[in-house]
Structure formats: structure tokens, C-alpha cells
From TrEMBL:
Its EC number is 3.2.2.31. This is Adenine DNA glycosylase. Gene3D superfamilies: Helix-hairpin-Helix base-excision DNA repair enzymes (C-terminal), Hypothetical protein, domain 2, Nucleoside Triphosphate Pyrophosphohydrolase. NCBIfam families: mutY. It comes from Desulfobacter hydrogenophilus. Its cofactor is [4Fe-4S] cluster.
Length: 343
DNA sequence: AACGCGGGGTT
DNA sequence: AACCCAGCGTT
């Protein structure tokens, strides 16, 4: 606790503390590093300073602010939860664990973090940092990236919780994991727990925490078309659930075996949007990595030939001028060639 | 309990 | 290239 007091970082969500501000920060910080989150968080809070502001806006606007941050279900769930609180709960965010965790997008971690930090409720958080610190401190064998091990770490964390100030305690463990007890080459010298750390005493900090091996990720070939018609281009909107849910993109899809990118582009445009396109001109190839697969995407300019748009897959479409593209939320893989379209 | 879900930084 | 990150929802 003393170490945290002297060494904690000044972060935007650590001033003007409120349930709403801490909640938003915890949602953004899921699987996302502090440095990445900071500019998104500042912009979000400037746009929607209060929960009621967020509830009063449209999902597309929220997704646009979230564009590039990833895990877009977080934005959809947060927006939905804001609506529930404002319309069904009189604007009062539940201050009990069960009530708060029942909101969409709020799991054990966020409920424990928000309620301990903003309300001193006695719940221990278990995130990647906490698991790593505990695994080293006690030489815990349970693999940290195995779902079955979560309960074991949660139980340890609950037992160690400092109930007089759970919020500071939780943040102290996480901050220690982020700044000192790092995944590679932990800085054990200044660590306040070095004297009681099992892994440090045995000089095995490099083999804790244990983890199970992950499979390697396949590469998928994709073709996408920027269809031009009367000075406008066609964009489609992905369904609201699943990968990149609710975002806009240039239509396209998988390149099948023994199929060229050009053939795949024409075929996918026909299947997804019902239109015929031709006169393809290669624009660029984009490489992009997701968690479970990688894509190589060939992007083509092409001309609209015939047909009326009849969607099969996408939930919406628009013909827009190039100047309007920035108004819509796109996946990062599309943003990578957005600059080239004007040329 | 396993799996899907982004994107970026570090090593 | 592999690993990691202030996890959650669905099945």
C-alpha cells in the first residue's frame, strides 16, 4: 500500500473519481494497455461527461469514438447498459455486486474493480496482472491462461484482500504487476514483496506464472472491392454481433482455393450485395493480425456494372462520397488503406 | 469449460 | 514471431 502511494501513475481515471468514470475506464482497459486507452478515454469523457449523455446518443456515434480500440462488443454493451440505468433505474448505477454485475458487459472483474475503488466494497479483482503477481508470490502452479484456474486465483485474492481499503489494495496489486512484476524480466530489486516472494527466493521468476501453449494462428486471404458509381463508393455494415459487429467496411470476403483475388472480389460482391462489378484495379495488399487468425487482404477499385443492391449478410449499405468515409466507424484493417482511396 | 472477440506494445 | 494486456458473453 505504501509502495502504491509513492509509485502509482497519474492516470485520467484516477482523478474526479466517480462510478461512471471508473466504469468506463475498466471497460476500455479490458485486454488493452494503459497507453492505448488514455487518448480514447479522454475523448470519450469530453464527448459524454455523464452517463445520461452516453445514454442519449446513438450506437454508431459510440462506435465511431471506439474505432480502432477493438473488442467492439465492449462499446455496444456499455451503451446498452447506460440505456438500462438511465431508463429503467432512474439513472442510479447499482452499488451492489449482483446488481451491477447484471448489467451487460459487466463481469466479475469490472464489478469488483468499480465497487471496490468507488465504494470500498470488499471484492478482490483478478486480472492478468494479479494472476502474475500471485503466481510468483506463492509459486502457484495453475496456468494463468486456463479458464479452470481462475477460481483458484480468485480465492487467493479474496483471502489476501485488505478489507480496510479494498480499492487501493486492488489497484496496488495491479500497479505492481504493471510496473514491477512484469511478464518478462521483473524488476525485483525495488519490489516491496521481494522478501516474501516464493519465486524470487527460489530464483524462478522466469517460469512463473505457468501458462499453457496456444495454437498458432492461420492466415486467411481476403478480397475487398471499392465499388465506384457516379462519384460515390459502396460501403456495407456488418451485423451487430460477432467479429467487428456494427462496423462499416468495403464489401468482400474469403478467397477460395484455386480462385484469384479478382474472382473472389467479384463473386463476394455478387453474393453479399447482389451487384455486378468489373474493371478491377488493384489498389494495395493489407496485412492485419487478429487474436486467432491473420488476414492478407487484396483491395481493388472496381466499377459498378449492373444490378440493384440486395444484401445477403450485411445489415445496411450506403453509397457515399470519399469525403464522407470518415464519418463511419471502420475496422483498423480498412483504415490502413483509407488514405490511398483519394489518390 | 472452451471459444470468439481487436489492436497494439514488448521482447 | 511469440507473447502479453485493468475480461466478457455465448455455447
Amino acid at each position: 500500500m505504501a509502495w502504491y502511494r509513492d509509485n502509482c501513475r497519474q492516470l485520467p481515471w484516477r482523478s474526479d473519481i466517480s462510478v461512471y468514470r471508473v466504469w468506463v475506464s475498466e471497460v476500455m482497459l479490458q485486454q488493452t494497455q494503459v497507453k492505448t486507452v488514455i487518448p480514447y478515454y479522454i475523448r470519450f469523457m469530453e464527448t459524454w461527461p455523464d452517463l445520461k449523455d452516453l445514454a442519449a446518443t446513438g450506437l454508431e456515434t459510440v462506435l465511431k469514438t471506439w474505432e480502432g480500440l477493438g473488442y467492439y462488443a465492449r462499446a455496444r454493451n456499455l451503451h446498452k447498459a447506460a440505456g438500462i440505468v438511465v431508463r429503467d433505474m432512474g439513472g442510479i448505477i447499482p452499488d451492489d455486486y449482483k446488481g451491477f454485475k447484471n448489467l451487460p458487459g459487466v463481469g466479475d472483474y469490472i464489478a469488483s474493480a468499480v465497487l471496490s475503488i468507488t465504494g470500498s466494497k470488499p471484492h478482490a479483482v483478478v486480472d492478468g496482472n494479479v494472476k502474475r503477481v500471485l503466481a510468483r508470490l506463492l509459486c502457484v502452479d495453475a496456468p494463468v491462461n486456463h479458464s479452470a484456474a481462475h477460481k483458484a486465483y480468485k480465492a487467493i485474492a479474496e483471502k489476501l484482500l485488505y478489507e480496510k481499503d479494498p480499492g487501493t489494495y486492488n489497484q496496488a496489486v495491479m500497479e505492481l504487476g504493471a510496473l514491477v512484476c512484469t511478464p518478462k524480466r521483473p524488476d525485483c530489486g525495488p519490489c516491496p514483496l521481494a522478501g516474501e516472494c516464493c519465486a524470487y527466493e527460489k530464483q524462478v521468476t522466469d517460469i512463473f506464472p505457468r501458462r499453457i501453449k496456444k495454437k498458432k494462428v492461420p492466415t486467411v486471404h481476403i478480397a475487398a472491392g471499392i465499388v465506384k458509381k457516379k462519384g460515390k463508393v459502396l460501403i456495407t455494415r456488418r451485423k451487430l454481433d460477432g467479429l467487428l459487429g456494427g462496423l462499416w467496411e468495403f464489401p468482400g470476403g474469403k478467397v477460395e482455393p484455386k480462385e484469384s483475388s479478382e474472382q473472389a472480389c467479384i463473386r463476394e460482391l455478387r453474393e453479399e450485395t447482389g451487384i455486378e462489378a468489373g474493371n478491377l484495379q488493384f489498389l494495395t495488399r493489407v496485412f492485419h493480425a487478429y487474436t486467432h487468425f491473420k488476414i492478407e487482404m487484396d483491395v481493388f477499385f472496381c466499377d459498378y456494372i449492373s444490378g440493384r443492391v440486395l444484401l445477403n449478410g450485411p445489415i445496411d449499405h450506403k453509397w457515399v462520397s470519399v469525403d464522407q468515409l470518415h464519418q463511419f466507424p471502420f475496422p483498423r484493417a480498412n483504415l490502413k488503406f483509407m488514405e490511398l482511396i483519394r489518390g
